[in-house]
Amino acid sequence: MNYSCFDVSIANDVAHIVLNRPDKRNSMIHEFWDELPTIVQNIDQNSTARVIVLSSTGPHFTSGLDTSIFGSNVESSDNPEDTEKSKRQRSAKLYDTIEHMQKSFTCLEQCRIPVIAAIQGGAIGGGVDLVTACDLRYMTEDGFLSIYEINIGMTADVGTFPRITHLLPEGVVKELAYTGRRISAQEAKHHGLVNEIYTDHETMLEAIMGIARQIATKAPLAVYGSKKIINHSRDHSTADSLDYISLWNASMLQPDEISEAFAAAQEEREGDFVDLPTMRQKMGTGINK
């Protein structure tokens, strides 16, 4: 399938989603917000890959939101009554737009498989929302992030603050949010926001694909459980998380997968693990076989 904002390929159980509008600095236009969740959910629901790598093209990962997506939220009309009605609906329409955008990034966090971000150049504004929703982040030496919204009189609203406060110290987050300054790849790594820094884009992608392939050799059910429990633990108390882990393993632990993992290690081969099951589709569309 062809997309306006992305190229998608799958090989060796790794899905590679590439932002493909370098001439526009990969800005997030209207199509972006529909295409990203469609791609991710299709991969997840149909179990076509075990890992997702999200990368980009050109000098910058993304320049962030194309602000034209907000428009005026007021529909023009020859009828003054219609125009007045549209004005009164403006806030509700904007709320709906922002909620849709938030869900477009939340799908990365909620999908069952790991998502790895490969960041070259700038991840600006909405780019920070995007990469903080991923599981792992890697950057090139020239990479930087900027909570840019403050510079245009906005409060970041698509997911940055609920997530980045778990990834950076609160004081650092507030400084970045209040000033809009850039945080370099080196500073981001110092604070633990990114896993590693690479000299250039090609070297970074080669290394990340190696990491993705390594993850793809592990038992998918165990990787799924790890992501689920790590995310749950982030948002809940230790006591709640311990109880959740007990319930998860009691219902999801698979002795055959454990036995296969031990056998594969002893025989120095890759494990023959089952893939995640395809997911039930919306009511009325049936269940994938």
Write up what this structure looks like:
The protein is of the alpha/beta class and 289 residues long. The protein has 2 domains: 6-216, 2-enoyl-CoA Hydratase, Chain A, domain 1 (Alpha-Beta Complex); 219-289, Lyase 2-enoyl-coa Hydratase, Chain  A, domain 2, CATH 1.10.12.10. The chain is 47% helix and 13% strand. It has 10 helices and 9 strands. The protein has helices spanning 30-46, 80-110, 126-132, 160-164, 170-179, 185-190, 201-216, 220-235, 238-252, 255-266, and strands at residues 6-11, 14-19, 51-55, 115-119, 122-124, 136-140, 144-146, 182-184, 196-198. A 6-stranded mixed sheet has the order 1-2-3-4-6-9, sandwiched between helices. The chain has a 3-stranded mixed sheet with strand order 5-7-8. Strand 1 (6-11) and strand 2 form a beta hairpin. Helix 8 packs antiparallel against helix 9. Mean pLDDT is 92; it is low at 283-289.
Q: What brief labels describe this structure?
A:
10 helices, about 45% helix, single chain, globular, alpha/beta, Lyase 2-enoyl-coa Hydratase, Chain  A, domain 2, three-stranded mixed sheet, 2-enoyl-CoA Hydratase, Chain A, domain 1, about 290 residues
Helices and strands, with pairings:
Blueprint: E1 6-11, E2 14-19, H1 30-46, E3 51-55, H2 80-110, E4 115-119, E5 122-124, H3 126-132, E6 136-140, E7 144-146, H4 160-164, H5 170-179, E8 182-184, H6 185-190, E9 196-198, H7 201-216, H8 220-235, H9 238-252, H10 255-266
Parallel strand pairs: 2-3, 3-4, 4-6, 5-7, 6-9
Antiparallel strand pairs: 1-2, 7-8
